[in-house]
Amino acid sequence: DVYKRQAMNGVLMAADEINQAGGINGRKIDIVIEDDKGSPEAAAQVAGKLISNDKVVALIGAGASGNSLAAAPKAQSARIPLIAPSSTNPAVTQAGDYIFRACFIDAFQGEVMAKFAAGTLKAKKAAIMLDFNSPYSRGLTEYFELSFAKLDGQIVIKQSYSQGDADYRGQLSAIKAAEPEVVYIPGYYGDVGLIAKQARQLGLTVPLLGADGWDAPELWELGGDSLNGSYISNHYSADDPSETIQKFARAYRQRYSNLTPDAHAALAYDALRFLAEAIQKAGTTEGPKLRDALAETKNFMGVTGIISMDRDRNAVKPAVILELQDRKYIYQETIQPETSPAVQSH
Predict the structure, then answer these.
(1) Cross-strand pairs, 302
(2) How many other CB atoms sit within 10 Å of the CB of residue 301?
(3) Are 341 and 202 in the same domain?
(4) Structural domain count, the chain
(5) Is the domain of 199 the same as that of 337?
(6) Structural domain of residue 24, as residue ranges?
(7) Phi and psi (nearest 5°) for 101?
(8) What is the rounded distance in angstroms from the CA atom of residue 346 to the CA atom of residue 342?
(9) Within this chain, do residues 144 and 283 fall inside the same structural domain, yes or no?
(10) Judgement on whether residues 154 and 278 belong to the same structural domain of the protein
């Protein structure tokens, strides 16, 4: 799957860079890769194998929150730090004090899009179309609603669907009748592409808003031009003009036959880099000491932003807003977490 390949690329590139620069405290990093096959059961199984058989000193993964939640108890009981690169569900790090993440959580992502809708787009009325069975979609909905209300916005209608539905016209007709100025669709690309297409066919022309679950090349194959003029929150953009990002993107393209690094690649790259920094600081790979060094991470200069760990082991860091246009994700602005309220616009 696309997400996994990109994340694996990011980890391997970081490991090579670290090893070429002399390793950590004179030792080389060895990466052992196992496939969680996209299932929580398999994720728990491979985490157990990596810890018992391969004797790893830390785990990077999983991508999806459900799989990280399944692997977390294995890491916690073995006192082996686990860093989830892209699992945004708040519950992941609540599994124990050895569980960390390299990404922001859904509370921040929902808030960022509400701020963008109310502030930049000047929307007062929003509709929400959510995947009711998905904790990811429900969580984002809740945080978007809370933040939008604080900004004097009103949710005029909420409609739900189930992942894999083929016909969304009933819900979309109801949304159109409620006359929102934006529609928030916090789902995954497989459904979103079709929803966008059907929304436009029904004459619903307002901006569609989404989150990091939209970020996949397949989104365009499903939604095509219907996605133009939509916006998503994401972890980073390869189009961001910052020198750190451009340097990373150039090196990645060179290494992986001109593939553009997506957010999964950048987050996995950052996860290994800040693990390496923590090992260096701890001076050992011993679980408890490494855990403490990770927990003390402050102002780590990552590709996906400056990363600090909060007391819940979540990364406090910025998000970006991207506009979808002609099969591209175009960088709009960076929104900083509350601790540093500066907003940079480009």
Answers:
(1) 305
(2) 12
(3) yes
(4) 2
(5) yes
(6) 2-104+242-313
(7) -140, 155
(8) 13
(9) no
(10) no
Give me the CATH number covering residue 336: 3.40.50.2300
Q: In one letter, which amino acid is 224?
A: G
**Co-location of 81 and 212 in the same domain:** no
pLDDT per residue rounded down to tens, the chain (346 residues): 788 999 999 999 999 999 999 999 999 999 999 999 989 999 999 999 999 999 999 999 999 888 999 999 999 999 999 999 999 989 999 999 999 999 999 999 999 999 999 999 999 999 999 999 888 899 999 999 999 999 999 999 999 999 999 999 999 999 999 999 999 999 999 999 999 999 999 999 999 999 999 988 889 999 999 999 999 999 999 989 899 999 999 999 999 999 999 999 999 999 999 999 999 999 999 999 999 999 999 999 999 999 999 999 999 999 999 999 999 999 999 898 875 433 333 3
Compute, in degrees rounded to 10, the torsion defined by CA atoms 104, 110, 116, 122.
-170
> pTM for this one?
0.89
Q: In what order do the strands lie in the sheet with 343-345?
A: 154-161, 125-131, 182-184, 208-210, 230-234, 319-325, 328-335, 343-345
CB 31 within 8 A of CB 7: no
DSSP structure string for 43-78: HHHHHHHHHHTS--S-EE--SSHHHHHHHHHHHHHH
273/340 same-domain check? no
- Residues 8, 138: one domain? no
